[in-house]
Amino acid sequence: MNPARADQIGPLDMFKIGVGPSSSHTVGPMIAALQFRESIKKLFDEKKIAVAKAKESRLRFVVELYGSLSATGKGHSTDAACCAGLFGLHPRTSKPEEIWAAMPELNQKKSIKIDEHIIQFFPEKDIHWLHWQFQEKPLPHPNTMRFRLYLDEEVLAEEVYLSVGGGFVDSYDGDDSPGKTKESQTPFKVVPYPFNSASEFVNQCNQNKIKPWELVIENEKAKGMDEATLRYRLKTILDVFSECIENGLKHEGILPGGLEVKRRAKKLNEQMLSGSMPAWAGGDLRPSVYAIAVNEENAAGGRVVTAPTNGSSGLIPAVWRTLQETHKLSTETLENGLMVASVVGALVKTHASISGAEVGCQGEVGTSCAMAAAGAAAMLGGTPEQIEQAAEIGIEHHLGMTCDPIKGLVQVPCIERNAMGAVKALNAVWLSLACDGSHLISLDRVLQVMKQTGLDMHQKYKETSTGGLAIG
Ligand code: SF4
Questions:
Q1: Which of 135, 365, 372, 437 is the S-S candidate for 319 at Cβ 3.0 to 4.6 Å?
Q2: Does the beta carbon of 405 sit less than 6 angstroms from any atom of ligand 1?
Q3: What structural domains and CATH numbers belong to the chain?
Q4: Which atom of ligand 1 is the closest one to the Cα of 312?
Q5: How do residues 390-420 score in pLDDT, each as one tens digit?
Q6: How many Å apart are CA 96 and CA 43, to the nearest integer?
Q7: How many Å lie between the centroid of ligand 1 and the Cα of residue 420?
């Protein structure tokens, strides 16, 4: 279900503003529900659904959630996200409080209005939590969902969507052969510096004597995005990073969901600033504190950025904020770092996966660590080879990491995992910048291994909450 080329995925595809707690189980389903609503609205507008003849009270929506969406969807608020999307809310532009108000309102009203049409929808009854088969076949993706519009028992319209990680959504037309999703059928944009592997990216930079982020800017220009717009939107992403850290550092209390996990970022930050940390807590504690702040906001359903997913949303903001403070980096440099980080995310998405339901947490926190390491190496003046090495180190030491969130909540182990990943990312930068960039294992090789490890990983360790820490 992956796009066939990494150079087709840009920074604004990888970094998307949304809400917590999950990009694949919250943001993706919300976008899919919104797309379904838009398709129904179009049918109404084109008068392809003859509602004048049908009694509108006989129209109703049904949502079917399969596989991992069903196994952990309650903990990830997938039902609430679907309600918000059907309600017409977008994860980027709607306020979190509006989004979370949609399901209670629907449970009360039991209907949705689209223009003048009333469609029955009672989330408690009309959202179905289903299994690992779709139309008597294995699921096309662990995160499969189907939306239907009924008139009595007749299906008037239906769409199947796959939430493939990081808030990316594919439409599925029933054809399982490779290259058949709507996303992959989108025509390629011709770019001046094509690449589809890490080695090609490094070669393009070196042969054309172009900085890695300049390569990204030129490719995005060819896709229709001028540099000023790209930078403006990346600055917005940086602003959300900061807002999220600040919110996380001031909020206290217990995270929602029933695990009774206490927020820690505020207290940790106070201890760090006052110098009251125990003497053995050496090193720079900022990456851990900032990552925990963001991931607590994510767990509470707050505004976050996929980096590349919501579960791994704290790691990159933590590394960027730490380096901004320690190295006084300019906004432009921080934007450049995001561009380089996005290249690594695009390579992983193309050749392995950024979905915990597909390959485990190596695809989420592992990818985020590699993206952070590459972006940070670029911001600190690394060569293309050193940037590639930093990314490789970042992934290599997350290979095989499972996804086993307790109760399906993006809290344990996810929150601390971002703190550990942020520390590893900075260590990867140091290791790569301290050497000349020559190394034994390439990033391209690590991605092959990551993909195969994900395929070999038992399903119970891939965001089903049926193995590992999630049980017992
Ligand atoms: S364990 Fe990792 S992959 Fe799984 S939900 Fe948590 S952050 Fe995401």
A1: 372
A2: yes
A3: 6-16+193-470 (1.10.4100), 22-165 (3.30.1330.90)
A4: 7
A5: 999 999 999 999 999 999 999 999 999 999 9
A6: 29
A7: 13
